[in-house]
Amino acid sequence: MQIDKEQFKKDLAEQIQKDYSQSIDTVSTGEIYQSLAKTIRYYISGDWIKCKDKVRDNLEKQVYYFSMEFMIGRLLKETLLKTGMLEDVTDVLKDFGFKLEDILESEREPGLGNGGLGRLAACFMDSCACLGIPGNGNGIRYNYGMFEQRFSDGNQVEWPDDWLRNKNPWEIRKENRKEVVKFGGTVRMDANLKPIHEGYEIIHAVPYDMPIIGNDDKTINTLRLWSAELILEDSELNSVEYSKLEAKKIEIQKITNVLYPDDSTDEGKLLRLKQEYFFVSAGLQSIMKDFKKLKLSISEFPNKVAVHINDTHPALCIPELIRILLDEEHLEWEEAIEITRATMSYTNHTIMQEALEKWPAHFLKNLLPRIYMILEELDRRFNDKYSSSLTEEQLRNTSIIRDGYVRMANLSVIMSHSTNGVAKLHTDLLKTEVMKDLNFLFPDRFNNKTNGISYRRWIESCNPTLSSLIDETIGKEWRKNPLELAKLNDYKDDSTMLDKIERVKNINKENFSDYMKQRYDFDIDPKSIYDVQIKRFHEYKRQFLNALHILYLYHKILREPDYKMQPVTFIFGGKAASSYYRAKKVIKFINSLAYHINTDPRVKGRIKIYLIPNYNVSLAERIIPATNISEQISTATKEASGTSNMKFMLNGAITLATLDGANIEIKDQVGDDNIMIFGLNKEEVLDYQSNHNYNASDIYQNDQDIKMVVDSLVNGFLPKLGYDGIDLYDSLLKENDRYYVLKDFHSYKEASAKLRCMYKDRKKWNKMSIINTANAGIFSSDETIKRYAKEIWNVNGDF
Ligand code: OX2
């Protein structure tokens, strides 16, 4: 977008005056940020309106991506880059005496997600907009996002993330588009067998819309987040006592107050169920209203609307759409089911049993009586249709309601036209293990869509130094089509280019080290190898294995004071769910280890270890461009895909990985020489699991190195860890090491040593690095979204 700088200056000053009744030289950077964002939002509003009108007038099919999480990250820089306003706005701010960098830093990150699932949703929204696909997000506007993580005596402490304290300048509250969501009450059938829902509680859902901007082709989609609010009609105002009103307001707001800081178990169950229905019901009602304005036959609904269910959290979309079609549009069951199935598609993101949602039937019966009736009918129809062709066990595995629980994954597969996994291995496991009976019934519905990442955020925006070098080398075409990055393969033996690659990495490492010094007073040596593991803390992700190995290196250095090694800084970042006791013990372990190693003069800088507090998208954007080694070390079969693995690869880090999730596909892209693989593979893990022939104590008893590190969890070797090592010790020996940490220890140790040794030959390393970047184009979320659009959503277009 071309802007007139003088006009923009005036508009910004005016916005500041409106917002604060102050002149520009008296406001803070935080205040400038607010007014700047609003000015930019105003500048794009014309295109936003045009885009909505175009979609409506051309009767284009729209995709609605329903997700409990959208981890969108900071928006200002991305918006400036996409609108092409970055340079002009930087100049304007300079004229006013401000540095853009400071203003970017004052943006509070909306932490509306836990990790990969929420970040994927954000990348997908970005790709839809950039490809010109009418794809809208539908989610929850949490008053408090993901908690702020702090450490106290090495322990994680959770602080509220009050991200809306200074307001969100990108959003627009649309009270006139509010919806009514009904909870509780009873349902009876009238004389014509029509259901009558009575005695329910009404909650108003108010949408807040944010623009999702494409690059240069003028597509601006909408992320609609719903907030639970008390809205009284004028007539009600006089009839409610003030004190009761306040209490009611608080009660209602509770529904959208907090994001559950847990992506593995369902906590605060009833409230979470309420959240799920709340945004699903509001979203579908508003979609139906828009559809009806088109004045088409209801049978056209699936031709104009695709609803995507991001994991099972929004699976109530299914009975809710059926409810609308039956009770409000007065369709027959068969047609309602057909339309619903043709509209819905579902992505599964995990095979971890504890994360597969199951709701106690009585919860649904009490909270959503009409929805529960519909679920019972769907289950009855499923059983009627398939009971004769399935064994009792198959029927038990596939039915929707069983043993007093409603199984949301089964509902999602049975009632949608597409179920996809998020990497080849994961889809394969869904089809052959976890959902094998559903796959037997509906083989055509299962498909793979390997995850992807937005290269606009994950290289263009976060790594401008590497991006410019790529421009210089192969031209700028890759910014439109990341598959063009493959042209870098031609430079893998070009020694000038390899030197440049190294220089870029070194600049990024220095910048990162400076930032860490200034913000946390960390002393990171930019000459050391940056070995990074950033992700949620989870047993299956095995930060524990990484930390045990560092403990091993510490012992080695103490035992062999002259031991020579390439200096390495081990960097961790990530939050543990507040209720996840063991993950929190791993955090404590890492912090204790960091304390002892970083302050021990005998280590002489050979190893250092840092756990950066409050890991989030903005931090990831700083860490990833500076990383040499990317740790992707989950127990094989457990990580559905992973997406940080792709971000690191794109930025030229070398992956140290198990054969899990998308690591396998990364290996296929770069070849065996440019990735370091270790550990058990899928077959070996499945074999241990089914034959119960794994014995961790045997390994411990018979291996001196392993015994030494494991014992130092509990023998006082790390005084700061205190008694907190006991639980971790027990996880290995009393619980027989469910994630095969001890089994994989040696191959991990050797792979890590080999990789660090390879760093000595910098030419070879830089070659590996460039090969990684060159072959990362396939993991662009644009490529993934093209496949969703064509193969799942049935959206046609020129992309
Ligand atoms: C995550 C998965 O754990 C991760 O492997 C995957 O890359 C990501 O989703 C995006 O697909 N909550 N988070 C996930 O699954 C669930 C459930």
Number of domains: 2
Q: What value does the Rg take, in angstroms? A: 27 Å
CATH class bucket of the largest domain: Alpha Beta
Label the CATH architecture of the largest domain: 3-Layer(aba) Sandwich
Largest sheet: 10 strands, mixed
Q: How would you name the oligomeric state of the polypeptide chains in this document?
A: single chain
Instruction: Report, as a whole number of angstroms, the end-to-end distance.
Output: 22 Å
Strand content: 5-15%
Ions, cofactors and other ligands present here are: ligand OX2
- Structural class determined from secondary elements: alpha/beta
The low-pLDDT segments are none
What's the CATH superfamily of the largest domain, by name? Glycogen Phosphorylase B
- CATH topology title of the largest domain: Rossmann fold
Number of strands: 23
Shape: globular
Helix content: 40-55%
What's the tally of helices? Answer: 33
Characteristic key phrases:
about 800 residues, Rossmann fold, binds ligand OX2, six-stranded parallel sheet, alpha/beta, ten-stranded mixed sheet
Task: Characterize this entry briefly.
By secondary structure, the chain is of the alpha/beta class. It is built from 33 helices and 23 strands. It comes from Peptoanaerobacter stomatis.
Please give a structural write-up.
- Phosphorylase is an important allosteric enzyme in carbohydrate metabolism. Enzymes from different sources differ in their regulatory mechanisms and in their natural substrates. However, all known phosphorylases share catalytic and structural properties.
- This is Alpha-1,4 glucan phosphorylase.
- One of its GO terms (cellular component) is cytoplasm.
- Pfam families: Phosphorylase.
- It catalyses: [(1->4)-alpha-D-glucosyl](n) + phosphate = [(1->4)-alpha-D-glucosyl](n-1) + alpha-D-glucose 1-phosphate.
- This protein is of the alpha/beta class and 799 residues long.
- The chain has two domains: 264 residues, Rossmann fold (3-Layer(aba) Sandwich); 325 residues, Rossmann fold, CATH 3.40.50.
- The chain contains 33 helices and 23 strands.
- The strands form five sheets. Strands 1, 2, 5, 6, 9, 10, 11, 12, 16 and 17 form a ten-stranded mixed sheet that branches. It has a six-stranded parallel sheet with strand order 20-19-18-21-22-23, with helices on both faces. The protein has a three-stranded antiparallel sheet with strand order 13-15-14.
- Strand 18, helix 22 and strand 19 form a beta-alpha-beta unit.
- It is globular, with a radius of gyration of 27 Å.
- 48% of the residues are buried.
- The mean pLDDT is 96.
- The chain binds ligand OX2.
- Ligand OX2 binds next to helix 6.
